[in-house]
Amino acid sequence: MTQYRLTAPERLVTTVKLPASKSISNRALIIYALSGCKVLPDNLSDCDDTEVMIRALSEHPQTIDIGAAGTSMRFMTAFLAATANGEHVITGTERMKHRPIKILVEALRYLGADIQYVGEEGFPPLRIVGRHLQGGYLEIEGNVSSQYISALLMIGPMLDKGLTLRLNGEIISRPYIDLTLCTMREFGAEADWISVDTIEVKPKPYAPTSYYIENDWSAASYWYEMVALSKDRDAEVKLEGLMDGSKQGDSSVRYIFSLLGVKTTFKSKRPGVPTTVTLKKSGHMVPRLEYDFGNSPDLAQTFVVACCALGVPFHFIGLQTLKIKETDRIAALKTEMAKLGYDLVDTNDSELSWDGSISQPTSLPSPTTIDTYDDHRMALAFAPLCQRREIVINQPQVVSKSYPRFWEDLQEAGFKVEG
Questions:
Q1: What's the pLDDT at 327?
Q2: Is cis: bond before 313, omega within 30 of 0?
Q3: Catalytic site residue 298?
């Protein structure tokens, strides 16, 4: 098993060119394919999830193996169902074969799709025969993965009757839905909310256009964590390629980390223009943090680790989708934080809390080895912890799923990364 032992520098002063947004890249690729555009978007992400989608869309193999890319599985399922380009089987890793997809399959079947389960009912692999779909009116629950909703919305312009999608009950991850709608409109689609719970997509085809993808606010979150946990009072990190007023849901990281002592300054506030963001310590931190991560669940691991390391008790809600990610992230966080003496409490499969106490701090092994469970965000969220204690990261290569250059960026910032 590959391991990296991490050692932090005494001073943290660095400039980082963040990777392009995986979320926007994958949406843009689907829309590009549906629009018939032959030129790829500018500044595409180079992560694993985006690479598998590029291969699938360009090569059209009969069997499409998307590996561990959950976004690609959901988006490609809808894409293949709504395009008349033959029969395909879409599959992935063993973990992917245990990640539910029944809600999306049933929704697509309701719209007329021909999809069959190859193995266990409700899970990949899937056999899909592409066809023109009628579309129309559809209802699904609003508290499901936003990737299901986005997958349906993106094929909406290609449906004969368009798509009117009503989301019942609580709507989670709304910023990801808005990101999808915004990207669709950039390509000429007529798609928007027509009420608080209903979205209408007109049957108007996409128009090919050039498109630039901004850099990733999710990747920025780990550098915010670096600054928050650094013992260097003058720590300064400059992040290139972010935008003020970004549609990415994880751009909320700047507001949440302001509560944990990190100040954000934009070099330029021109909307839609990439700029440099500077992170510094503010010297002010809340004594306790309560937050609803329903709109930004991918930030949860970062804030669990940061709060524990900073000694800030917390209560986080809106975590229901964490159990069906690359791993059961609630269980993984509880297990790995317990190694460090932090006993987390989970409630209702959607909440995590910590009361501020540390158990058996004198008996902790040094360094502490962190397992990553084939989950990129476990490696990324725990790496900044090396500024507070010696740690070893197992399977560090998992970061390639969203941030392939992470370890190189750490080394350029003065961290020792020893294999």
A1: 85
A2: no
A3: yes
